[in-house]
Design brief:
10% strand; three-stranded parallel β-sheet; binds tryptophan; 14 helices; Rossmann fold; mainly alpha; Tyrosyl-Transfer RNA Synthetase; globular
């Protein structure tokens, strides 16, 4: 037997600057989960070379995401924080999963279609296999829960497809190796297998933080306009300035949530306020309904500065001491590596690789 314990895993790519959307949609959730689960948080540097091979400062980007994790309150002693390339099991398991997954599964991924664009033949093979590496990240730890944004739901389904095919194709080998364990399949059902059916933890209302310049587009690190997003490296002045310059419409705020329909910019700013204040949009509108944006924006700017500046300040402080960050990643990598090594040994035995 080889029991599965509840465990959280998630990854963030070291590309571009982290912004408010990453914080409210992902990192804040990572912090909260520490109270209820064993958590592993990974800076996925292997993934970062799938879309773009050469980066100007990959070590700096990796440290910057790590600093954001720590500054937001992730405790690298009670939990694990590391960068993916340090633990070779990710790449090894991904290779085996490349042979489990089917090309058709990968071709259907909407993120691949978006990122590859028109010239699919010219996309890297790594970009196509990206979800297989992501499945390896998660299943190297046999993680049961993965906090992610909405856009990663399809990749999580594919992770379950890979786990299910592995469990099924190797069922006899898993049993022979004495590694079979009951896998919960939902609705009280279980099947025998080795890898769990990992569930996404997808956040409610605040997951989708939209651009400050266009309420119909997601806030993104790749948007050419820096005014479209609040970066986690912005200081208080920059945060306040960006909120004040955010796009709005001419009307006052409605008193009820229904009044936000068809007003994407108003909806986004109220949503950001609600998420930062940890209140509902309805509660925010109880306070601000009928008020003009000229009154709402300064309140939002103050709140954003109040919530974010301790984090951005701590991030800057941490980034002044890269040696400390590197030591955190090394320690995390050693502890992650020990867990993943056990999985790799099991998987090699199941597949039939000697050694
Ligand atoms: N694909 C994820 C994203 O772009 C990043 C990622 C890689 C990830 N491996 C993961 C997320 C494992 C969760 C679990 O956001």
């Amino acid at each position: 037997m080889s029991d599965i314990t509840p465990r959280v895993f998630s990854g963030v790519q070291p590309t571009g600057n982290l912004h408010l959307g990453n914080y409210l949609g992902a990192i804040r959730k990572f912090v909260a989960l520490q109270e209820s689960h064993d958590c592993i948080y990974c800076v996925v540097d292997l993934h970062s070379i799938t879309a773009q091979l050469v980066h100007e400062d990959l070590p700096g980007q990796t440290r910057s995401i790590t600093a954001a994790f720590l500054a937001a309150g992730i405790d690298p002693k009670r939990h694990i924080v590391f960068n993916q390339s340090r633990v070779s099991a990710h790449a090894e398991l991904a290779w085996i999963f490349n042979c489990v997954a089917r090309i058709g599964w990968m071709n259907r991924m909407t993120q691949f279609k978006d990122k590859a664009g028109k010239d699919r033949e010219n996309a890297s093979l790594g970009l196509l296999a990206y979800p297989s590496l992501m499945a390896a990240d998660i299943l190297a730890y046999r993680a049961t829960h993965v906090p992610v944004g909405d856009d990663q739901k399809q990749h999580l389904e594919l992770t379950r497809d890979i786990a299910a095919k592995f469990n099924n194709d190797f069922a006899q080998k898993i049993a022979e190796a004495g590694l079979s364990t009951p896998i919960p399949m939902g609705e009280g059902q279980t099947v025998e297998g080795y890898f769990p059916m990992t569930e996404p933890l997808i956040e409610g209302p605040a997951t989708r933080v939209m651009s400050l310049k266009d309420g119909s587009k997601k806030m993104s690190k790749s948007d050419p306009s820096d005014l479209s997003r609040i970066n986690l490296t912005d200081d208080a002045d920059a945060i306040a300035r960006k909120v004040k310059k955010a796009k709005t419409d001419p009307d006052a705020l409605p008193s009820e949530v229904a009044g936000l329909a068809g007003r994407p910019e108003a909806d986004n700013l109220v949503g950001i306020f609600a998420a930062l204040a940890e209140r509902s949009k309805a509660e925010v509108l109880t306070d601000f309904g009928g008020r003009a944006f000229s009154e709402f924006k300064p309140a939002l700017a103050d709140l954003a500065v109040q919530v974010l500046s301790p984090i951005t300040g701590e991030m800057r402080r941490l980034l002044d001491d890269p040696g400390h960050i590197d030591a955190v990643l090394k320690d995390g990598g050693e502890r992650a590596g020990a867990i993943a090594a056990k999985t790799m040994a099991d998987v090699k035995q199941i597949v039939g690789f000697l050694g």
